[in-house]
Amino acid sequence: MQIIRRLYFYAVTLISLETVIWALIGLMRTVAAPQVLGAAADRLAAPLAFIVVGLPVFFLHWRVVQRMAAESAEEASARLRAAFFYVALAATLIPAVQNTLALLSRSLTQALGLETSTALLGSGQTLADNLIAMGVNLLMAAYFYQRNRQNWSGEICASLSAAEKERLEENYADVRRLYRHLWLGYSLALTVLGVRQLLTFLLVSPQAIGTPPASMLANGLALLAVGLPIWVYTQRLIAESLTDQRETLSWLRLAFLFALSWLSLFVTLYQLGKMGDLLLRLVMGEALGGAQILQSLRPALAALIPFGVVWGYYQRQRLEAVNARELPALRLAIGRFYSTIVVSASLVALILGTSRLLAFVVNLLLGSKSYFIESGRSELSASLAILLIAVPLWLRAWKPLQVEATLEGEQGEAARRSLVRRGMLYLWVFVGVVGTMFATGSFFFEIMRSLLGTPSDQAALDSLLRLRLTLIFLAILLYHLTVLRRDQRLAASTLAARQAAFAVAIWLPKDSHVAHELRAALQREAPQLPIIWLDEGKPLSADGLKDAKALVMIADRLTSSAAEERAVWTAFEGNRLVLPTSETDWYWIGASGQSLTALARQTARALRLLAEGHPLPRQSDNTLLTSIAYVLAALFLLQIVAVLMLGVIAPLVD
Fold first, then answer.
1. pLDDT 10s digits, 134-182
2. Domain containing 439: what range?
3. Residues 597, 516: Cα–Cα separation, whole Å
4. Residue that wins the pLDDT comparison between 456 and 108
5. Is 221 inside any structural domain?
6. Are residues 28 and 152 in the same domain?
7. Closest to 378 measured CA to CA, from 269, 282, 267
8. Which of 450, 465, 490 is the last residue of a domain?
9. Do both 461 and 536 map to the same domain?
10. Given CB 3.0 to 4.6 Å as the disulfide criterion, which of 26, 142, 267, 286 pairs with 281?
11. Which of helix, strand or coil describes residue 533?
12. 472 and 593 belong to one structural domain
C-alpha cells in the first residue's frame, strides 16, 4: 500500500511539474513574439490556464513528498524517490540540450547562406524560443539538482540511521548508474550521427556531382558541438566511478556494453556488406563511373567509420568488464552468452544470403535470358556479399562454442547444460520445423495448382523457388537436431558416470511396499545409482555407510531407532533423505496425504539431482500463483511464435 501511495505522489508531482514548465515556456514565447501576442488571445489563454491549474497541484504534492521524506527514513531512502529526482533531471536537461542543438543547427545553416528549413531541428523556431526553453528547463534542473544532493547526503531526514543511510546511498547509486548510461547512450548517438553527417559531406565530389549539400556540414557540426562534450564528460564520470567495485561489477554497465558492442558490430558488418556488394557488381562487369562509385560508397563509408570506432572502443571495455568477474565459470558463461547472440544473428544473415543465392541460380536456369543483366547481377553480388560476411562471422563465433561443448570436465558440462545454448538450439529447431512446414506447404500449393489445371505461367520456376526454402529450413533443422542430440549424448554419459559414483544406502525393510516402490522409481529415474540395502537383521553401523553418499530412511526411524543407531545416522556426513510415512501424532507439513508411489518418485528424483550435482528444488509457497505464472508464460510464448511465423517465416515463403 505504501508503494502505491508513493508512486501516486511522485507521478502526479512529475506530470504537474512538466505541465507547469511547458505552459510557462509557451507563455513566455507568446509574450516574446508581439505579432503572435496581438493575433491570437488563445496563445495566452492556454498556457495561463495550465499554469493556474498545474501550479497548485505541483506545490501540494511536492510539499507532501518532501514532508514524508523529512519524517520517515524509509521514505527518504526509497528507490522510487531517487528515480523521481533523476527522471526530473532528465526531463529538464534533455529539452535544454535539444533546444541548444536546434539553435546551433539553425544558426549554422543561416551562416552558410542556407534556408532554415534544412536545419536538423527547430527550423520554425526563433532565437527567443530556444533561449526561453533552455532557461526555464535549466533553472528547474538546477533546483532539482540541489534537492537531489540534499536528499543523497541525508540532510532531508534527521532520523536516518547508519544502515538506512547506507541503503539510501546504494539506491541512489543504482539509479544514478542508469541515469549516466542513458546520457552516455544519448550523447554517443548524437556524436556518431554528427560524424556521419560530416563524413557524408566530405566524401562528396563537387567536381563530379555538384555543390555539396552544406546542410550536412551545418547539422554535423551542430551535432558534434552538442554531443561530443556531453559524451566526453559522461564517459569520464563513468571511468572515474570504476574505482568502486560495485560500479566495476555492475550488471547494468555490462548489459550496456553488450548492447553497444552488438549494435556497432552488426551495423559495421552491414556497411561492409554494402561495400562488398558494390565491388562485386564492378567485378561482374557493371559499368559505373568514378563519381557514381563514390556516390554509392559514401553512405556506407560515412556509417562504417564511426560505428567501427565505437565497436573497437567499447569492445575493449566489454572484455575488461567480463574479466573483472572473479569466478572463471561466470566469465565463461558471460562470454558464451555474447557469442550465442552473434551466432544467431549471423545465422539469420546466412539464411538470407543462401536464399538469395539459390533464387539467383533458379532464375538463371529457368528465367528469362535477360535476367542476369536486368537484376541477376545485383542479386548475385548481394547474396555473395552477405555470405562473405555471415559465414566467417558464424564460424568464428560458433566453432569455440562447439569445441567447449565437447570438452570433458566441468567446463564442457557447464557449456552443454547452459540455458542459453539449449535455448538457442531449441529455438533454431523450432524455426527449422515451422519454416520447413510453411515452405513445403507453399511448394505443394504450386504442385496442386498445376495438377488441378490452373498452373502459373512459370510453374516450374515458382515451384523450385519455393522448394529452395524447404531445403534451407530442413538443413537448419537437421543440423541443430544433430548438435542437440550430441550434447544430450555427451551429457548422458557424464551424468551416468556421476550417478555410478554416488552410492545410496537405503535403510528400509527390503520386502516392504515402500521399498518396492522406491526400487521401481530408482530404476526408471536413475538406473546407474549403486544401491546399498542395509541388512535389517543387523543394527545400523558406520561401516555400512562408509561408501554411501546419501542415506534414505523412513520417518519411523527418527523415533524408533536405538541410541547407537541414532548416533550413526546423526554423524553421517552425506545427504539424509527421510520418507514422511505415517506415525501417530506426527504430521509432515507439505507431504501429508501423498501416496507411497508419489513419495518414492520424489525420493528417486531427489537422489538423481544430488548425484548429478544439482540443488534440490524448493516447493512453491503458492501453487495457484505458480500455475497462473505458467499460463501467462505459455500465452507469451504463443505470441512470440505468432510473431515469428507471421513476421519472419511467412514473408519468406510468400
1. 999 999 999 999 988 888 777 777 677 788 788 888 888 889 999 999 9
2. 325-490
3. 9
4. 108
5. yes
6. yes
7. 282
8. 490
9. no
10. 286
11. strand
12. no
Is 397 found in the same domain as 445?
yes
Q: Is residue 286 part of a domain?
A: no
The pTM is what? 0.80
Residue 586 lies in a domain: yes
Domain identity same for 43 and 160: yes
What value does the mean pLDDT of the chain take? 83
Inter-CA distances, 259 with 194, 273, 344, 557, Å: 21, 21, 15, 57
- What is the widest separation between alpha-carbon atoms in the chain? 109
- 77 and 207: one domain? yes
pLDDT tens digit sequence for 270-313 = 999 999 888 888 888 777 777 777 777 888 899 999 999 999 99
Range with the lowest mean pLDDT among 251-260, 351-360, 515-524, 591-600? Answer: 591-600
Question: What is the edge-to-edge ordering of all strands in the sheet holding 550-554?
Answer: 531-533, 504-507, 550-554, 575-579
Rounded CA separation 652/654 (Å)? 5
Q: Which of 439-442's residues contact partners 24+ apart within 8 Å by CB, and which partners?
A: 439/466, 439/467, 439/469, 439/470, 439/472, 439/473, 439/649, 439/652, 439/653, 440/470, 441/653, 442/466, 442/469, 442/653, 442/654
| Class of residue 632 by CB neighbours under 10 A (exposed 0-12, middle 13-18, buried 19+) | exposed
Would you say residue 252 lies in a domain? no
Q: Give the total number of structural domains in the chain.
A: 3
Among 338-352, 470-484, 583-597, the least confident range: 583-597
Query: HEC string of 418-440?
Result: CHHHHHHHHHHHHHHHHHHHHHH
Residue type, 217: L
Which of the four pLDDT bands, split at 50, 70 and 90, describes residue 376?
confident
* Ramachandran angles phi, psi of 526, nearest 5°: -145, 75
218 and 334 in one domain?
Answer: no
SS3 letters across 210-222? CCCCHHHHHHHHH
